[in-house]
Design brief:
Helix content: 25-40%
Strand order of the largest sheet: 4-3-2-1-5
Number of strands: 5
Distance between the termini: 16 Å
CATH topology: Hypothetical Protein Ychn, Chain: A
Order of helices and strands: EHEHEHEHE
CATH class: Alpha Beta
Oligomer: single chain
Largest sheet: 5 strands, parallel
Number of domains: 1
Radius of gyration: 12 Å
Shape: globular
Structural class: alpha/beta
CATH superfamily: DsrEFH-like
């Protein structure tokens, strides 16, 4: 199952809640304001690194660019809109709102 997070981890507990439901191998995609979670050295970095031990983590590149984020946690893969569509086509989606 593909889990998507579109809310900032600094405004909601969505990342925390989602992490309890992730199964090993489930991909996680950050988009919209959710992309703030993948910035290097923020307060959710340790949670993100823990998730990446068992789950692939993606971020929507255009949303990073729109927010001026350049320093992304190592191991997070940036995808474009085409990559986003490919992930959605391969997996059932659970959007964490």
């Amino acid at each position: 199952m593909l889990h998507t997070i579109n809310k900032s981890p600094f405004e909601t507990s969505t990342l925390e809640t989602c992490s309890r439901f992730l199964q090993p191998g489930d991909p996680l995609l950050f988009l919209e304001d959710g992309v703030y979670a993948v910035q290097v050295g923020n307060r959710v970095s340790s949670s993100l690194e823990s998730i990446m031990k068992n789950n692939p983590v993606y971020v929507l590149g255009p949303d990073l660019a729109a927010r001026g984020i350049e320093d992304v946690t190592e191991g997070v893969e940036s995808v474009d809109y085409e990559g986003f569509v490919e992930l959605v086509e391969k997996h059932q989606v659970n959007s964490w709102l």
